[in-house]
User: What shape does this take?
Amino acid sequence: MKESLLEILCCPLDKHDLELEDAEYDGDEVISGTLVCSECGERYAIEDGIPNLLPPDMREETPA
Amino acid sequence: MGILENKARARLFYKYLSKVYDQINPFIWNEEMRAEALSLLEFPDDAMVLDVGCGTGFATEGLLEHVDEVYALDQSEHQLEKAYEKFGKRGPVHFHVGDAERLPFATNTFDVVWSSGSIEYWPDPVRTLREFRRVSKPGGQVLVVGPNYPDHTITQKLADAIMLFYDEYEADRMFKTAGFEDVKHMFQGPSYEPDVAITTVARAPEN
Assistant: This one.
């Protein structure tokens, strides 16, 4: 993802802004890092450039 | 509630369905139907377009015939893998893993919000449509393709057991309750089953 994407992204839970932490770049692409909600502190991973913005109860490791 | 309206079940279902989805999908939703649905939309220059429940990217491909970039979201990483193969991870499609009901996008962002073949898995369609309205710009268009409620009783029972089906009256109620205006419906399908899908297009209010 491009860092400019942050302008239109928000926390899926409370819709507050997200802040980018521990970012690794490939040119202008953020290839890994963590998006952190400025309000509730929930953390969302960026893996291979794709942000995973699933709420915690729907993530892969959550039992079905 | 149908068995696939539970998101965890839908996720598991798609983990396996993704392997064959593009082979079986053209029988219910094909390029002709996609083009017909796309013709209902207006794309301004540099349109911001969101594809909710993009899956393997069939609709995304159609949207890219009208715009240069598409924002796409799906809850299933297995479905998305197929879409990555088509478009690459860093091409014209900006991919997000996420939930249709709890969108990770800012208010008033999109000119067009598209969703085909996803509504039948939403546990609370009105709540999800409200999310669509929230992320739409004022006057922005939303288009949803879902399964039309079958006419025959036996098929209806089967339909109710599996997932959400709805008719134009129910679609009208859902979209209007979610705050949309200018709500219109169109039935679509291949020649042998012309009413299999219901496509609804609506607008977010101007203010």
